[in-house]
Amino acid sequence: MEVFLALEKNFYFSRMLASFEEHIDKHFPFLRQARLLIAISGGIDSVVLARLCDQSGMKIALAHCNFHLRGADSDDDEEFVRKLGTILNAPVYTQHFDTRKYAAEKGMSIQLAARELRYAWFGRLLGEGKGAYLLTAHHADDSLETFLINLSRGTGIEGLSGIPAVNGKIIRPLLPFSRETLKGYLLEQQWTWREDVSNSDTKYLRNKIRHQMVPELKSLSPDFLKQFGRTQQHLAECGLIVENYIEGLRKDLFRQEGDRRIVAVDKLEQLHPQETCLYYLFREFSFPVAEIQKLLRAMSGKKITSEKFIMVRDREHLLIEPIAQEETGASYFFITDDIREIGYPVRLLFSEGDNDVINPGNGVTIDKDKLNYPLKLRKWEKGDYFYPLGMTNRKKLSKFFKDEKVPVLDKNNTWLLCSGDAIVWVIGYRLDNRFKVTAETVNTLKISIHSEAKNEN
Amino acid sequence: MEVFLALEKNFYFSRMLASFEEHIDKHFPFLRQARLLIAISGGIDSVVLARLCDQSGMKIALAHCNFHLRGADSDDDEEFVRKLGTILNAPVYTQHFDTRKYAAEKGMSIQLAARELRYAWFGRLLGEGKGAYLLTAHHADDSLETFLINLSRGTGIEGLSGIPAVNGKIIRPLLPFSRETLKGYLLEQQWTWREDVSNSDTKYLRNKIRHQMVPELKSLSPDFLKQFGRTQQHLAECGLIVENYIEGLRKDLFRQEGDRRIVAVDKLEQLHPQETCLYYLFREFSFPVAEIQKLLRAMSGKKITSEKFIMVRDREHLLIEPIAQEETGASYFFITDDIREIGYPVRLLFSEGDNDVINPGNGVTIDKDKLNYPLKLRKWEKGDYFYPLGMTNRKKLSKFFKDEKVPVLDKNNTWLLCSGDAIVWVIGYRLDNRFKVTAETVNTLKISIHSEAKNEN
Questions:
Q1: What is the DSSP string of B157-168?
Q2: Domain that holds residue B269
Q3: What percent of chain A has pLDDT over 70?
Q4: Residue B378 placed within a domain
Q5: Which of A7, A276, A279, A370 to mutate to test the interface with B (most CBs of B within 10 A)?
Q6: How many CA atoms within 13 Å lie on the side-chain side of B163?
Q7: Beta carbons of A277 and B241 less than 8 Å apart
Q8: Cα–Cα distance between B295 and B39 in angstroms, integer?
Q9: What are phi and psi of B342, to 5 degrees?
Q10: pLDDT tens digits along A53-99
């Protein structure tokens, strides 16, 4: 993962081309010989990238996605890119997507859907030999915006280390340059571009960050982007050192027998700092660190599961195995932020930004921002309580089941969806009042029970 | 270094005391038995800290600094703290400082001077047995503010890892709590406090961050401070892992003979990631990483110095020794951001925020924010050029010396102050135009030649 420093602030726009070529020759000399696919929207950043590559004598082709999200504007963007291809004498590839439909089907946000569609298509183009590398126009301001978004969501060192300059066949050669520099050069060269109207809309998180927060941050120091670039490079390198260190630990600690990984509890107990070491050591299995820590103190036989793995406390060891779906006897199941569907122990579908009111027996719509991931599915335990929807006082779950006249067998087959220690939903019965959608809710999450019987597809 | 998580956002102020006591008992149980010195200004944060400790039954004394920076207001603060001492039946220690004079003498900012005076006095109080620990009222918002300040200045992982909860005898038990929580509890308890008028003045960096940036950041996510606390804890732990890793490297790489440290160049060349490894390995000597990297590729005999050390390339090794002041033959001298005075090879004094116009032969006043630290002192080299003050074109240094009719001997004895590759000041002759003070200058730095002959003290 490489991050490059932002250039001097007294940057003369007319020196942009020379700086760009220096940057290419120093870090990506192989781009000079190859056919390059430029991911192009028609906006300032990607137009400058395509034109700089052309001015540098590189062989380019343009790849444009039409997401059909802004009506005629989307088609005008496509037309603009086609004309640019003619001017630059470069092949143009375009692809049309029904982004809204795809997002709805996958239960994901429009932005995420567009991203998934875009990179899948770029991958196909590379696979078909339309280019040896894909170039994107991410720049220094994008890195700062991503940093702030990740900061607001809670992230580790990876999320703060910047957008990688090289990621497989994807290269980002504009990362050292600021948005201001790119725009200045474009204006100086009198190039045209397409304004993306959604960009000036501050209702989206990224636009709020771009138009309100980033200018404030830059005003803190005359060299802010440059200093920030250094910080990101340092963090990225610290991240590599941590990976090296953990790799050494992993070799010492884990023993493999077939599909099973075995690790001694006493060695995990001695790790320092424990939380971060456990996080990296077990990251591939998607167990929450706090639950691993509980397992370190648990009795033999205690189990937890993630989407694909089960971990069992077995005397002085932890055993980790891939789940054989039918036979898991685990009592806890974890649901991470990116999961859209689970099949066991209850079949649940998750869709974000979906406000449909649904039958409380079949599903709930909740305030997503109140959740702490990963969510946990478990059976009820003695002493459990929650705040039934519409009530401000807590109620013991045993009392709730009694009042609702739930048969013992059903009660013992009922799953609870939990966020941290709090019950979010007594599945099939009642939502917790603390997680309901209110006037202040920004992001919603719909969770529906999807039994085979009810599935009409 | 410990960082604790911010509490739930649906925090009831009346639960503050219980949460505070839980936090004390979990992380600092030893505070229960000791006499505690509370660093108290009279503002909300320190008043809440003192009163919480009192409500929890801890034995406290109050330590108040009167910096005499706000006239009668400063004395009223002191009076307020004395009365609070009577109410809480706690001893009150106060100290008066002539902060402005101290700052002027030391050539440092008022804030830095106040900090230095404050902690020196606290140290004396602890030394005299007035308390076993010093408690300060830093809270979650302070951590976020410090993070942003460090981000704007360029920092490594340490600068992003938060204010330490324990630092020797100094304990900060309010770090998990937000400013809002502390203020809410204070209002609920109907306690009085002293408003610090300088706090609402946004001309200072920290106040700009506090009143403009932090509210924006918090609005990005309903749980921002909590997520941010997690991120900081993770970064602090990654920092520890990096330290562990580097400690292992250091043992492998460095050999000591008397005062001399010896390290093989080929082993340094193999380090990955090189920049961060070099940074931590050589941090104690204050050599800039870029210069160490140049020395890795330099010929035998090449030398660099920092304030206290000299590093020499000696065939396949680097040798590092403490400087014997008189005998250094190094060609480069580095000046870090915190140095206020150097004695060799030229005697220079540095004072920030000082706008006195001075004789260009004896000193210069420059735009500090245009400097990249560490600065470098070196002799002139063939091909050197700069932008003499008042000129927009560059001029070769050889031509400059010729035009100024500088004798050969003086020319060869002239030192250049450099920032990165740029010459800032041909010492004793001319400032570079790029570094002059302009209407946009925010921070100034005065550098004066302080020859023994001119020194009248």
A1: HHHHS---SEET
A2: 258-327
A3: 91
A4: yes
A5: A276
A6: 21
A7: yes
A8: 47
A9: -130, 155
A10: 999 999 999 999 999 998 899 999 999 999 999 999 999 999 999 99
